């Protein structure tokens, strides 16, 4: 039998690790789930040539390959199991070019989103995708998952911010996709196909990114409280329907709000008293946070405020950017606050924005039916909800999967989707055909087979 690890070492030397701790870390991601068995090796690629050399070996010997960035994914997409070879692009962190005139950057895939944006700030530019994980996730991972974030409703998701990609295909060949121009429609849009492909079509080794100027003018932030989450969701839907475009618009249901305040050791600033235990006794307020930016920020915020108070919310507004950031920080603490409650299955459905109140109602019914706490936040500006199903023990209990299945069913019935930004990975595979239908799943499988005829790229993920 061929010693694949020896071949890898001969090709890329000390970039190969078989250290048990390194292999073990590659079995999981931030979903909290872990693959079974032990990966073959982890290659920490430092150059495009490393990735090509490793893919040539994997292709020839039909070794399954799991591409990996920072491993912050929430759908199990980067989890590597028995006998699988991990190619990490996390060490490829260079910014190769920042072009102020054409407002683009060329980067390696391993640079962290926040590090890139810090470098861009001095040029008055930014790369708009802003997942809440921006300080810990890679640009390559953001592209492979088509990551969203808090600012998507106004500034778009990752798909809107990528001009071109350099991709190593399954056989080790290098393909340059896309262009440096703002427009460009030559042939099929393979760049778009690659975005969100979760490591199943090729390995992203370079990206030409579309940048946008940092917004100027004031930032206005509204913190609003409502009696129920359905009322708060109705207000966010009304703000959208009124054609106001906040930079961020976030909803926190009462349980989510209470859990975060408790985690941050902040007093309950909402009307009503803080609960003794976030899971036992929810406070009586749902939270809507609206932030506007740019030249019209204050006027837009006042229009949003009028809608909120008309619909029964209690709200205050600030134009102090520090105070605004402090209010957003409460929302950004959602993930650690949930982890503090127990094991979490983080879900990620999206619905048309006008249907948000109905989706929140469905979540409450499902939570009551199964007796599972489901604190939920939503990027209300784009209809993307994150219900957090809390459980105990190492494995996700069947009742939690059943509740998750009902959440997906409810989202699809409202004209929504299984995943707004986290991807299918391994955790949502079983529901893929519910949304796409068997014929489309088959078409997508055939497309994958064209890119990856030997089926070695991230097998068992998505399909
Ligand atoms: C606290 C927290 C907050 C989060 N907030 C958000 C959020 O607001 N919005 C959001 O969208 N997500 C969010 N996420 C999820 C996660 O951070 C994103 O999915 C992120 O884009 C993953 O990047 P990564 O570098 O960690 O990729 P990984 O987790 O390593 O990989 C994710 C997927 O991309 C593939 N992949 C990675 N690198 C490459 C590459 N170079 N070439 C080909 N495929 C590759 C992997 O195979 C896998 O399928 C959050 C996660 C955490 C822990």
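^ Assign residues to that structure.
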């Amino acid at each position: 039998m061929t010693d694949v690890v020896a071949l890898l070492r001969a090709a890329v030397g000390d970039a190969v690790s078989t250290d048990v701790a390194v292999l073990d870390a590659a079995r999981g991601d931030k979903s909290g789930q872990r693959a079974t068995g032990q990966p073959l090796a982890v290659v920490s690629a430092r150059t495009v040539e490393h990735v090509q050399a490793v893919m040539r070996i994997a292709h020839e010997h039909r070794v399954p390959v799991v591409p990996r960035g920072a491993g912050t994914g929430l759908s199990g997409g980067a989890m590597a199991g028995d006998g699988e070879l991990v190619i990490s692009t996390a060490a490829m962190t260079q910014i190769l070019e920042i072009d102020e005139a054409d407002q683009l950057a060329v980067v390696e895939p391993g640079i962290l989103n926040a590090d890139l944006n810090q470098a861009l700030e001095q040029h008055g530019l930014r790369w708009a995708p802003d997942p809440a994980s921006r300080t810990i996730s890679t640009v390559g991972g953001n592209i492979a998952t088509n990551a969203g974030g808090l600012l998507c409703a106004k500034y778009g998701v990752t798909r809107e911010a990528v001009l071109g990609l350099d991709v190593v295909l399954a056989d080790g060949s290098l393909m340059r996709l896309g262009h440096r121009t703002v427009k460009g429609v030559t042939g099929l849009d393979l760049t778009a196909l690659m975005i969100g492909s979760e490591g199943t079509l090729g390995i992203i080794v370079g990206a030409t990114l579309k940048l946008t100027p940092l917004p100027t003018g004031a930032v206005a932030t509204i913190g609003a409280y409502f009696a129920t989450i359905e009322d708060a969701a109705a207000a966010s839907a009304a703000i959208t329907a009124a054609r106001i475009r906040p930079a961020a618009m976030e909803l926190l249901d009462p349980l989510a709000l209470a859990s975060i305040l408790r985690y941050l050791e902040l007093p309950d600033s909402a009307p009503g008293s803080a609960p003794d235990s976030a899971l036992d006794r929810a406070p009586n307020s749902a939270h809507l946070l609206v932030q506007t930016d740019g030249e019209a920020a204050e006027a837009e915020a006042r229009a949003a405020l009028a809608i909120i108070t008309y619909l029964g919310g209690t709200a205050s507004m600030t134009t102090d950017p520090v105070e605004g950031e402090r209010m957003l920080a409460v929302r950004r603490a959602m993930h650690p606050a949930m982890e503090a409650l127990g094991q979490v299955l983080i879900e990620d459905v999206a619905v048309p924005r006008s249907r948000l109140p109905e989706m929140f109602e469905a979540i409450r019914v499902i939570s009551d039916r199964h007796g599972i706490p489901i604190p939920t936040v939503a990027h209300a500006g784009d209809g993307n909800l994150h219900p957090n199903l809390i459980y105990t023990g190492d494995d996700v209990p069947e009742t939690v999967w059943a509740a998750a299945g009902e959440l997906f069913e409810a989202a699809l019935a409202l004209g929504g989707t299984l995943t707004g930004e986290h991807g299918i990975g391994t955790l949502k595979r079983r529901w893929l055909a519910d949304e796409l239908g068997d014929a489309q799943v088959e078409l997508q499988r055939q497309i994958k087979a064209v890119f990856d005829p030997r089926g070695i790229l991230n097998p068992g993920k998505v399909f």
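The chain is about 35% helix and 20% strand.
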